[in-house]
Structure formats: C-alpha cells, structure tokens
Amino acid sequence: MTRKIGIIGMGNVGAAAAHYIVANGFADDLVLIDLREDKVKADALDFEDAMPNLPVHTNIVVNDYSALADADVIISAVGNIKLQDNPNDDRFAELPFTSEAAKKVGAQIKASGFHGKLVVITNPVDVITSIYQEVTGLPKNHVIGTGTLLDSARMKRAVAAELNIDSRSVVGYNLGEHGNSQFTAWSTVRVLGKPITEVAKEKHLDLDELDHQAKVGGYTVFHAKKYTNYGVSTAAVHLANTILSGAETELPVSNYREEYGTYLSYPAIVGRDGVQEQLQLNLTEDELKKLQISADYIKTKFAESTK
C-alpha cells in the first residue's frame, strides 16, 4: 500500500517535517505546498539532491492540491512566525492571520476531494483545528491537532533532566490548550516505577518549577532563534506515522471532547481511523478546574475567529 503525505506550509516547521519524512522514508509520495513557489521548488530539489545518499526514495510533488485527493495524511504547517515575536509571548498573535489562512487552505483541501486524516500544527492549534474541521467537513475524529504532544514532551525532558534519566522513561501528560493555559497533570505522571508525587517527596523535586520549565521551553527556543521547529515537527510526524501504521497509540493530542464542546488536548487512542477511542482520566479537582479554564479560553478565541 502506497503511503502518501501532504505538507501545506514549507516554513521552518513544514520543512523540518518534510526532511524527517524524506530522510526516514516514512512516505512513498510526498506533496509539498506553499505560496512561495521558488521556496517550495527549492526544497523539493534539495530533497532530491539528498536522495542519492539516502537508503530510501520518496516521490515529490509540488504545489498541486489535486494530488492530495488520495493522500493518507495532510500536515498543516501554515503560519507566520514573525507575528509570534511579541513581548507577551502570545500564541494567539497569529490568529488573525492563521484563521484566514486555514479557511482558504481548508476550502482547497475540501475541493481536492481529500478524505484522509488532517494533522494540524498551525497555531493557535486548538482553534485552528476547529476551523479546519468546520471548513473541510471532515469527521471530527479525522482532524487532529498536535496539541500538548509537544508540551508533554517538554515536561518529560524537564523531569528526566532533573532525575538524570532518558526522557522516554517518563510517562504522563500535559493537558488543555497548546498555549499559556496548558498544565502538567501531575496525577498522570509516573517515573522510576512510581507516581511522580512520591518521587518528588523522596528526591525533593519542585513540581511547580518543572511545570514552569515545560511551559517556557518553547519560548526559550523561540527567543534564541526566532522560531521553534524540531520538537513540533517531530511530534507531527509521530502523529502522522501513528495514523499511517494503524498503531493505536495513546497520545495527548488536540481532539474534540464533547463534554467541553471544543478541541483540546486529552489522551486518545490514535490509529488508522484517526482518534479511535477517547480516554477518561481520573484527574484531581484542581486539574479539572485548570482543564475547564483552558477549554473556556479556547472556545472564546474560536468564537472571536469566526465572527
């Protein structure tokens, strides 16, 4: 079975995702789309120049929406990162630009006849995922945002560094909005075979500080190089591969939760049919309050974007 992925938006994030896919042979066919014709053609040529030194071959198509009709997964990496360079570190600074872009791109995706799964990186991701679902008319479980898949990874990195272990040895989630209202649900985090709340007492960990490190990790990278790309593109490709392979993996991604009436990040089983099962965590009262605050914030911003 041929694996076909589309990437729309070939900025720093889209290009990093495309390179990860090409270098590892994750797709047989890769469709690259960007308004900057010269840039996307140059990327395609650069990838083709890489192929003689790779163990795999990828067929690349440039700026052809009709080629998305039979794609398995489309990754939306559309954005204008310069708008994020603001003193308030506000991810919603991009919303006026990305909401309009998502409406236009979503309409073209729909017109192409695409009926696969849509993976959204575009910020603010929970609101933009909602817009894409509305415009494309795809089933809610087939439109998924990367959400706190990245924030959870940042939390794992912070905890692992404190304990001097591999970050993949940390289990648990950050939940809610991929933005300032996201939080680490410490009740879900396990490390060294125990709940982290126990480990924190034994080893005198400051969980508030680790939560802060997870939250500001993106800003630390952004302020140093004026964009983030490797962490989020890796999260997006991980999500795309989970769908392509039918892996049925538990991931904290932005998915539509009926009880909150919005897209937000909450663990779900992801496989070939997108979000195949939604999980129900035993969160603490404090965590439930934080999640509701996050959901309300996303809904408010979504309402603003659709006026």
**Radius of gyration, in angstroms, nearest whole number:** 19 Å
According to DSSP, the number of beta strands is: 12
* Largest beta-sheet characterization: 6 strands, parallel
**Residue share in β-strands:** 15-25%
**What is the straight-line distance between the termini?**
43 Å
Order of helices and strands: EHEHEEHEHEHEEEHHHEEEH
The rough form would be described as globular
The share of residues in helices is 40-55%
Q: Could you name the ranges where pLDDT drops below 50 across 5 or more consecutive residues? A: none
How many helices in DSSP terms?
Answer: 9
Provide the structure class.
Answer: alpha/beta
Average pLDDT across residues?
96
Q: Output the strand order for the largest sheet.
A: 3-2-1-4-5-6
Structure in words:
With 307 residues, this protein is an alpha/beta fold. It is built from 9 helices and 12 strands. Helix 3 runs parallel beside helix 4 and helix 4 (125-136) crosses helix 9 (285-305). The chain is globular and about 55 Å long. 47% of the residues are buried. The mean pLDDT is 96.
